[in-house]
Specification:
alpha+beta; 7-stranded mixed β-sheet; 30% helix; globular
């Protein structure tokens, strides 16, 4: 399968759409901040860019495993608006909890954003050509390569566990399939998950790009929670015919956020709908969010979390890596995967 670069990354601030700065130079040119704030932000981005965990000379005396992110921001004299876009549009945090937690994870998330930006040139994001539906198709092909069987339209009638609580088998249409462990999403295991919230999503078909995004064919826009006096950010993803998800001349806008207005969830995405402009048609869904009640190590039943409202899939990727660690007892090694791919190409 192929991926295509998302043209730009934006943040909505003070009624305007701004490009998210990812480097020292971009911070100095950004319209998000005043002159003196730009210098502080540029110094902060320079520190993060140069920071290496194993090189104490890049730490400037800060122990980021103990110093909180709020304390690090204070050291660089950053204002609330700058803190807001760094935390939510660069580090991609979904709440303010990170401010009182050790700064190291956030700095590493910002470095990942900058490194991804440097790798692709104008944005840190990529998206599957022909849409996210290509992901299960690619998985089915890879599954076949390794001798697996991919069964479509196959209902799971029952999941069986032994007296010791460990997974034993799955029953479907009178047949039983046994395995050492099972992996699935929450819909298959209603008694082993807990509800943690709800998410509302909107897929809108447009005949025009979103205004004020520098003529981008594709982009992500984040509306930070504080901008709308909410508890959760709103995410907007625009795709176009270039991404092979719609005909040329048409655009797809995907809006997502956590439900806060239980009586009228559509009110939660109203700011996003206002931002994208007139729509030809829109499709709105509200879904419950679930998390597993145990890690699966004892039961041999490994359950993923529900997809959250973010359009950049960061939490989904983190969940996949966490599940790999739980299943195999060790973290996934990107270096090993890269070496295997290079060896395969050499053959």
């Amino acid at each position: 399968m192929e991926f295509m670069l998302i043209d730009n990354s934006f943040v909505f601030k003070s009624g305007k759409i701004h490009k998210v700065p990812a480097t020292e130079g971009e911070a100095l040119a950004s319209g998000l901040m005043g002159f003196f704030e730009k210098r502080s932000a540029a110094s902060f981005f320079s520190f993060m860019s140069n920071y290496e965990v194993a090189d104490a000379t890049t730490h400037k005396g800060y122990d980021l495993s103990k110093m909180t992110m709020a304390e690090l921001y204070k050291k660089f004299k950053l204002g609330n608006d700058t803190i807001d876009f760094i935390g939510h549009a660069v580090a991609l945090h979904t709440t303010e909890d990170y401010l009182n937690q050790p700064a190291l994870p956030t700095v590493l998330k910002c470095k990942l954003y900058e490194d991804s930006f440097a790798m692709y040139g104008s944005s840190p994001y990529v998206y599957p050509l022909y849409g996210s539906g290509e992901l299960p198709q690619a998985f089915s092909r890879l599954c076949a390569v390794y001798g697996g069987t991919y069964m479509l339209q196959t209902p799971v009638d029952k999941v069986n566990f032994g007296a010791d609580g460990q997974f034993e088998s799955i029953e479907s249409k009178g047949q039983t399939c046994k395995a050492k462990f099972v992996v699935g999403d929450p819909s298959y295991f209603p008694n082993r998950v807990k509800k943690v919230g709800r998410v509302i999503r909107c897929i809108a078909i447009l005949d025009h790009p979103i205004a004020h995004i520098n003529n981008s064919n594709s982009c992500q826009i984040i509306i930070p929670q504080k901008e709308l006096k909410r508890q959760n950010d709103i995410y907007i993803l625009q795709l176009s015919g270039i991404n092979k998800v719609c005909p040329d001349g048409k655009y797809i806008a995907i809006i997502g956020t956590a439900v806060e207005n239980e009586a009228n969830p559509e009110a939660d995405i109203a700011p996003g709908l206002s931002l994208i402009g007139n729509v030809i048609e829109k499709f709105i869904s509200v879904s419950d969010l679930y998390e597993p009640t145990d890690d699966g190590k004892s039961s041999k039943c490994f359950i993923s979390k529900s997809y959250d409202s973010a359009t950049h899939f960061e939490s989904a990727a983190a969940d996949i890596l966490d599940m790999f660690h739980r299943i195999h007892g060790k973290p996934y090694s990107f270096d090993t995967a890269k070496s295997a791919a290079e060896e395969s190409r050499a053959e």
